[in-house]
Design goal:
Distance between the termini: 48 Å
Largest sheet: none
CATH topology: Growth Hormone, Chain: A
CATH architecture: Up-down Bundle
Helix content: over 70%
Structural class: mainly alpha
Shape: globular
Radius of gyration: 20 Å
């Protein structure tokens, strides 16, 4: 038995300033799923380096997988949703795969096993992301896509903020109890999957009616309107350092960051939560490209502050705030920008293409940063990436403009 909800983009709800019901339901799914994923993500860098004993290069490899392996299924997930015309069930498969990886995690003790579990989790994310975003775009007023994606990302970020808090509480109650984190994480993932299956409407997209073919997909994705934004997104992704590395750099410098490591994710996510909707609206009004590039300016400031030789609680909080600004200005804005550059029939694949480029670029970035950290140390590595980002951002702006 399924609960059916009908959304009418651009209708009365949009006129009244509210987002579609489907967006809120998908936001709830993402909230529960992010509680699950961020419980694990918030302890993984410290667990792998301090408990398992991985080197910065080895952690860079795993962080690269975490950042980039989902790229291998993003386009496949987007195309499958476009081709069938019912993206929901492709998203269900992706969320289900990630949920299963949570319950397998306690049995993964070696580097190879941990790599396999992280890979499965990220492949599930890659499969679900584009179909989910295509549902959001399908259910929303085209003039308010930035707001719709901002609301979804805000709900997603509530979960991302709660996840580290739950993990921190569990570790406080059971020191070293990582198995309990994995089991509770699985329970939240199953709850999110249940909301998706039972309550999210199985919207038929325009893509399904058009029966999109591979040749048309290749033509649209490789077309001139999308090519330049994809190049810009890839260049920016190459100079984006993963959160885990930034937090490890803060921990390397500060006792404060080391004592409260899982809660660093909370600080970033609270800032993201507060700013996702306002910056989404700002992107709708001023231009999504402007906000996207400005968000990378906040990331540049993060690099510079994290590279300082001394910090303290105040400076750490500023870094977390700026990192939240970066995500609020980019995470929902990029799919909103891309979704208006391709026809409705290839929307999911177009969004997936941009996300794939970013994921692959960040995979390479994590590997490069891990090697630089191992050779030069965190401070020099951060400053080199700061210089690279300062050079790339103006070029990306020209491409996007």
């Amino acid at each position: 038995m399924y609960v059916t909800v009908r959304d009418r983009p651009g209708g009365a709800a949009s006129a009244g300033g509210r987002v579609a019901t489907t967006v809120l339901l998908l936001g709830t799914v993402s909230l529960l799923t992010d509680v699950s994923s961020e419980m694990v993500a918030s302890v993984l860098p410290l667990y792998l380096t301090a408990v398992v004993g991985l080197s910065p290069v080895a952690y860079g490899f795993l962080d690269g997988i975490y950042q980039g392996v989902s790229a291998f299924l993003r386009i496949a997930g987007g195309y499958a949703g476009d081709r069938a015309g019912y993206p929901k069930w492709v998203a269900v498969l992706g969320y289900g795969t990630s949920a299963v990886s949570r319950i397998v995690m306690p049995a993964a003790t070696g580097f190879g096993a941990i790599t396999a579990v992280v890979t499965a989790d990220r492949l599930g994310k890659g499969l679900r992301t584009a179909p989910r975003d295509a549902l959001i775009a399908e259910a929303s007023d085209p003039a308010a896509l930035g707001r719709a994606f901002g609301v979804h990302r805000a709900l997603d970020t509530i979960g991302a903020a709660l996840g580290p808090l739950v993990a921190f509480a569990l570790l406080a109650a059971v020191p070293g109890g990582y198995d309990s984190i994995f089991v509770v994480s699985f329970a939240f993932a199953v709850a999110g999957l249940a909301v998706l299956v039972l309550f999210v409407p199985n919207l038929r997209t325009a893509a399904g009616t058009a029966r999109v073919g591979l040749r048309r997909v290749a033509r649209e994705v490789g077309g001139r309107r999308l090519r330049r934004p994809l190049v810009a997104a890839g260049l920016l992704g190459l100079v984006t350092v993963g959160d885990g590395f930034l937090y490890l750099a803060l921990q390397d410098r500060d006792d404060f960051a080391g004592r409260w490591f899982p809660l660093l994710y909370v600080g970033t996510n609270v800032a993201y939560l507060a700013l996702a909707v306002p910056l989404g609206r700002l992107a709708d009004r001023l231009g999504r490209a402007r906000v996207l590039v400005a968000g990378h300016g906040a990331l540049l400031a993060c690099y510079c502050l994290a590279a300082l030789p001394a910090g303290g609680a105040g400076l750490t909080l500023v870094v977390l705030l700026l990192l939240g600004v970066f995500y609020a200005a980019t995470d929902g804005v990029l799919p909103a920008l891309v979704s208006r550059l391709v026809p409705d029939g290839t929307r999911g694949t177009g969004i997936a293409s941009a996300q794939t480029v970013v994921a692959l670029a960040r995979f390479a970035s994590s590997l490069m940063f891990g090697v630089l950290w191992g050779v030069t140390g965190p401070t020099t590595a951060l400053m080199l990436f700061a210089v690279a980002l300062a050079l790339v951002a103006p070029l990306a702006w020209r491409l996007l403009r």
